[in-house]
């Protein structure tokens, strides 16, 4: 378990501390849902304020170990701007820095390698319109072809161009990524994305023809989602998710 630095909360703004708590909670929720890949995926969040600083996981910690104070603060180039005993995964921040740098609304970028997500990312047809969950994903989905482990800055403009203004990005043969203005929204988007892939893999395993939904239904999906969630996608469920974490293990807040 990471050692908690009790001095951090007293030396940063309340807005940064809240962002740290939310991001640590997101890591714990990913672990709780079984979406983590040991230490090898990443969730980043922009630090509120004028500086382009970001929080990301300390490389080597399991997601279930991450706390608000153990998150590493870096600049857009992935260089630490605050003391930390931990390094970050360079491959992880190539992807995240590209999106944070290109999208002002990209306050949180969540990237996973779930088995269902990678399975669908390897399918030529990608996400199929076969479930209610899928229509919300398909309404804002982009694809990016695999170029090897993301260590090359030359890949950044291609990734950014493929993503455009979408909220969901399927990294072909690699995994899933969501982009949002808040940690809560990024998590809820990923919930829909991963669930869509899990349903698809399960439906395909049935071995019978699948019933596809129409383009007209997909075209109305974003408006319907906003109506159902009262325009508060992540924040509607987020307090309940935090209450669940607090019941199980509130140490993410430290």
What order do the helices and strands come in, and which of them pair?
Elements: H1 8-11, H2 14-32, E1 42-46, E2 53-56, E3 72-75, H3 90-102, E4 108-112, H4 115-121, H5 132-138, E5 141-144, H6 156-163, E6 168-171, E7 175-180, H7 183-205, H8 215-219, H9 221-228, H10 233-248
Helix pairs in contact: 3-6, 4-7, 5-7, 7-10
Notes on the structure:
The chain has 254 residues and is an alpha+beta fold. It has one domain (8-253): L-fuculose-1-phosphate Aldolase, CATH 3.40.225. 43% of the residues lie in helices and 13% in strands. It has 10 helices and 7 strands. Strands 3-2-1-4-7-6-5 form a 7-stranded mixed beta sheet, with helices on both faces. Helix 5 (132-138) packs across helix 7 and helix 7 packs across helix 10. The protein is globular and about 60 Å long. The termini are close together. The relative contact order is 0.15.
Q: How many separate structural domains? A: 1
Strand content: 5-15%
Overall average residue pLDDT:
93
What is Rg? 18 Å
- Structural class based on helices, strands and sheet pairing: alpha+beta
Question: What oligomeric assembly is this protein in?
Answer: single chain
Kindly provide the name of the CATH class: Alpha Beta
Taking the alpha carbons of the first and last residues, their distance comes to 12 Å
Order of adjacent strands in the largest pleated sheet: 3-2-1-4-7-6-5
The rough form would be described as globular
CATH fold-level topology: L-fuculose-1-phosphate Aldolase
SSE string? HHEEEHEHHEHEEHHHH
CATH superfamily: Class II aldolase/adducin N-terminal domain
Number of helices: 10
- In the CATH hierarchy, what is the architecture at level 2? 3-Layer(aba) Sandwich
The number of distinct β-strands equals 7
